[in-house]
Design a protein that fits this description.
9-stranded mixed sheet; binds uracil; about 30% helix; Rossmann fold; single chain; binds 1-O-pyrophosphono-5-O-phosphono-alpha-D-ribofuranose; about 210 residues
């Protein structure tokens, strides 16, 4: 049996599993790939935010006054890791329209597999907000670890990492580097190949999302 990964939650909702299978299929078009990434991200966000605190709020229905509920606390911040993380923003923003969005630009050097950073812009880093860091792929984990390190250096404390496909290698690196950050994935795949791609995975997420090669 695989060793337990205490930082990882696999969100195995049947709709997520169904859509992920379509996403992995090599015949899936760029248009459908984009749509599926967005839908999976939305379903994941629904589960990941189930512990958000709420507070009472007085409203008038057309018939009478009542006490309803609203999500309390600071607004959530979504931080996609460019490029592929961008595909996860729209679906989550549909559920949480008030969310702020920051951006971290990182690409993985093809030869060394090390992350190279090129952009960092986030809103309200010093405030006690919950940050959801988004990237469909957690492979070696280098990009995710670098993004979280940069966010912590900017003062962010409440972080969660959402990916669609995780490799055990990446989850372990995250556990070593950022044991305080929960990782949520739609699937934990087998392993990386010699070029750092996840098996069975879904290929290059950025290329499939944006139609590049
Ligand atoms: C992909 C993916 C992650 C990274 C994962 O991005 O979106 O950011 O690789 O790999 P790692 O866990 O080994 O760091 P890529 O570098 O291909 O950039 P792109 O999204 O701009 O195509
Ligand atoms: N980045 C991707 O887009 N896919 C992988 O399988 C690994 C890293």
């Amino acid at each position: 049996m695989a060793p337990a990964l205490p930082n990882l939650t696999v969100l195995g909702h049947p709709l997520i599993r169904h859509k992920l299978t379509l996403l992995r299929d090599r015949r899936t078009s760029t248009r459908d790939f984009k749509q599926l990434v967005s839908e999976i991200a939305m379903l994941m966000a629904y589960e990941v935010t189930k512990d958000l605190p709420t507070e009472p709020v007085e409203i008038d229905t057309p018939l009478e006054r009542m006490t309803g509920e609203q999500v309390s606390g600071k607004k959530l911040t979504l931080v996609p890791i460019l490029r592929a993380g961008l595909g996860m923003v729209e679906g989550i923003a549909q559920l949480i329209p008030s969310a702020r969005v920051g951006h971290i630009g990182l690409y993985r050097d093809h030869d060394t597999l090390q992350p190279v950073d090129y952009y960092f812009k986030i809103p309200g880093a010093g405030e006690a907000r919950d940050f959801l860091v988004l990237d469909p792929m957690l492979a070696t984990g280098g990009s995710a670890v670098a993004a979280l390190t940069a966010l912590k250096a900017a003062g962010v404390r409440r972080l969660r990492f959402l990916c669609i496909v995780a490799a055990p290698e990446g989850v372990h690196l995250m556990l070593d580097a950022h044991p305080d950050v929960p990782v949520y994935a739609a699937a934990l795949d087998r392993r990386l190949n010699e070029r750092g791609y996840i098996l069975p995975g879904l290929g290059d997420a950025g290329d499939r999302l944006f139609g590049t090669h």
